[in-house]
Design a protein that fits this description.
Layout lengths: L1 H41 L4 H21 L5 H18 L5 H19 L3 H6 L4 H8 L7 H17 L4 H4 L2 H15 L2 H16 L8 H14 L6 H14 L2 H13 L9 H16 L1 H4 L2
Helix pairs in contact: 1-2, 2-3, 3-4, 3-7, 4-7, 6-9, 7-9, 7-10, 9-10, 10-11, 10-12, 11-12, 12-13, 12-14, 13-14
Length: 291
């Protein structure tokens, strides 16, 4: 009887193991397909199509993430990047409250993955100096996850600017973006430079804003993106030009965005199309912004 029980137990274990293996193989195969699907979305120039297509992809990614026996870092990365990009492009301007929820979701996927590093997890709530030491446990290979997590977190702060509890997290986001600049300033067309440029340009001089430093970071992001990735041009028009009341530069930047073909950077047609739409809306408000 004991031998029979052992055989049943072994059979049950093997069945569970085989189902787990099949499940993992299926999830991995589907993840590869979704990877290609997301690449195709980034190449899409039809904003209405992208707006309707992306939520389904994100829902599928969440299902795959939950189907894994353990948290999958690659799926977490795709979710962090996907929710951040979707929210910036299609939610933030129309529904700031929903944007807060989605940016927080993106941030949390990223942090969950990063906190697998025990030293980073330990240091996370131990003050700014300890937080920076925790970041030192990572290297260049971790730049993408750190960038997109910080990007989501920074955007969350931006749409929650009236909430002092959220503002208190800004030093951590700054530290993460400084990490990106240190280890790979070219990542995603120099977008860590864009992050600091926007902060320095938006803050008034009497509150610590540094327009000259902002201009340097904007120009560095232009250079890295070869003036083909036009999101930095939008943010310079929106922040630096308005703060400095430089209407002439504003008009030049808007014209550059408007006249840049989506085909100059086909792998980022979607982001450039979003920047074009936002620039058009910004230009319509120019007379309110300059006085």
């Amino acid at each position: 009887m004991k031998q029979f029980a052992f055989v049943l137990l072994l059979a049950s274990s093997l069945t569970h193991w085989s189902c787990s293996v099949v499940n993992t193989v299926a999830v991995n195969a589907t993840t590869n397909i979704v990877d290609y699907g997301l690449l195709a979305i980034f190449e899409e120039s039809d904003l209405d199509f992208a707006k309707s297509a992306i939520p389904g992809n994100l829902t599928l990614l969440e299902a795959l993430y939950r189907a894994k026996d353990k948290d999958d870092d690659h799926l977490a990365f795709l979710l962090t990047q996907g929710y951040t990009g979707y929210t910036l492009g299609f939610v933030e301007d129309e529904n700031p409250e929903q944007a807060k929820v989605l940016y927080a979701r993106a941030r949390d996927y990223g942090l969950r993955s990063l906190k697998k590093n025990k030293e980073f997890a330990r240091s996370f709530d131990q003050g700014q100096a300890e937080f920076r030491k925790g970041l030192e446990q990572f290297g260049k290979a971790d730049v993408p996850m750190i960038f997109w997590t910080a990007n989501a977190w920074g955007n969350l702060i931006n749409v929650s600017i009236a909430d002092p509890d959220v503002l208190g997290d800004l030093p951590k986001v700054n530290a993460m973006m400084e990490f990106v600049l240190k280890h790979d300033e070219n990542y995603f067309y120099g977008s860590a430079h864009l992050y600091f440029a926007a902060i320095l340009a938006t803050t008034p001089k009497n509150l610590g804003g540094k327009p000259d430093s902002a201009k340097y970071h904007f120009e560095r992001s232009f250079e890295i993106g070869k003036n083909q990735f036009v999101l930095p041009h939008l943010y310079m028009a929106k922040s630096y030009c308005v703060q400095m009341q430089d209407r002439a530069l504003f008009d030049r930047l808007i014209t550059h965005i408007d006249t840049t073909s989506l085909e100059v950077l086909p792998e980022q047609r979607l982001v450039n199309a979003i920047a074009k739409r936002k620039a058009k809306r910004l230009a319509e408000r120019a007379d309110e912004l300059f006085f």
